[in-house]
Structures are given as structure tokens and as C-alpha cells.
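pinned: reference chain
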Amino acid sequence: MGLAPHTSAGVLARIVGFTKAKAGYAHPYYHAAKRRNCDGDEDCVMLLMDGLLNFSRSFLPSTRGGTMDAPLVLTTTLNPKEVDKETLNVDVMTRYPLSVYEACLRFAPPKDLVKDIDNVEKRVETPGQFERFYFTHDTTDISEGPLDTMYTNPILKGTTDKIKAELALADRIRAVDTNDLAERIINSHLMPDMIGNLRSFSKQSFRCPRCKTSYRRIPISGKCLKCGGPVKATMHKGNVTKYLEISKYMAEHYVLSDYTNQRIQVTEMNINSTFGEEEKTQMDLSDFF
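pinned: its C-alpha cells
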């Protein structure tokens, strides 16, 4: 049974082999049915009887999200019409015709090439939706490529290193506009995370780790009124500021729009007004000797 993180629907499968790669090779339908779409995120496969027998709803947390990451339902029959349409865009040809390459030279829109390409979408509800999925290049070993991804590689420590490595790779690829890439990363991921966490910080509750009692505000004594344990915050400064420095780095090294630059500046001002600016140590000449 395959189960992707943050979901509660398992998908029945058969294990046909093993690989040295830190990856799960499977049919595109299967990944799409798990809501994974081969995007490099974490995934899992469990023995079917483990999911059926070693399970009880009483094991699940009662808090919000407690039903995630547990196989509450199981898909036993995979219907290509019911999976993400992205999977239907997979090409299944042994070779591309010359017309495709000629169209690429004149930068033709992809929709103009639909008639020249055999893909999964054209085969839905026919016997071909499950068979004769061809490919253009053979391989002697499915694991001949990298056995690990940079996403999980221990050489890159933290999101900042991963983003810098992504931008460095983009700089080497002529087809990629790195300035646009940097702006998209900031506006679609980094800024929403910082702004959302800043809002959560201002509205957070406080909790006693000993008896789990929640408080809207910390008691004057700083201790839990029920058990006397320490009352601690549930959201910390690090959660809010973790992407600030990498955002400023991208603003300094890449050409971003005025709007994005101003968003970064305003967010930094809001963070400083909430937590205060870091103290700057006064130095004298003796510090340089």
C-alpha cells in the first residue's frame, strides 16, 4: 500500500523489485493516485496487512490534522480518468517526428503539436491506456543515474543552501531566467511563509508542556495554574525569520521587481517592529589588533 504524506488515502500496489536509489519507481498513474506527481517529495510504501491489521482510529491524535498520514481508505482499482490530468500529458512514443523539432526551431506553441504527439490522454478509455507505453531511450539499469537527490543530500544543510544551489544551477542554464526564478521563489514560497508565521506569532497561544493546558496569555507567574509547570510559546522568532536572510540575499544578487523588493523591506520592518532589531556591538580600534 502506497501512502503519500499529508493524505489519508492509500493505493494498492505490487512490489516487483528493489533499487539502490533512494526513490520509489512506479507507474505515473500510481504516483498521481497518491497525489504525488513525481515531484521529489517524500513518499512511503507499507505492507498491506500492516495497514489493515495494525491500525485503529484510537491511535490517531484528536487534534486537527490527526487523520493525515494514516490509511483511512484504500484505492484498489486505479482509473486513469480519476487521476491528476498532469499524468495524462506523458508522451508514449518510441521517437519524435521531424515536425516536432522543426516546430521547436520556430518556437511554436505546444498546442500546435498535439496532432504529432501520442500521449496518454489520447488513449484514455481504450485498451491503450494500460499498455504499449513506449519510450525513446533504453537503459541497462534503472538505477544507473544518481542514487540520491540534492533535496535530501546531507551536503546541503537547510533551505538556504538548497535555494542557493538551485539558483546557481539556474545561472548555468541558458533556458532559465534566474531573475524570474528568484522572484517566483520569493513571492510563492518565502514571503507567504514569513507573513503567515508573523501573523500566527501575534495570535499564538501558550502551552504547558507538562499537562498540555493552553493559555491565551502567559500567567503573571510564568507558570501553569494547574500543575505549576513552565508555560511556553508555541510559535518562536526563528519560525518567522528563517527566510528573511535568503530573501535579502536574492534581492541583492538578482534583479527583482520594485514590488518584490518593497515586500521584503516591509516584511523586515514588521519583523523588527515585533522582535526589535539585533543589538550592534560597539567596536574600537583595539578590536582590530
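why pinned: The helical segments are 28-33, 48-53, 98-105, 158-172, 178-202, 237-241, 244-253, 258-275. Residues 158-275 form one domain.
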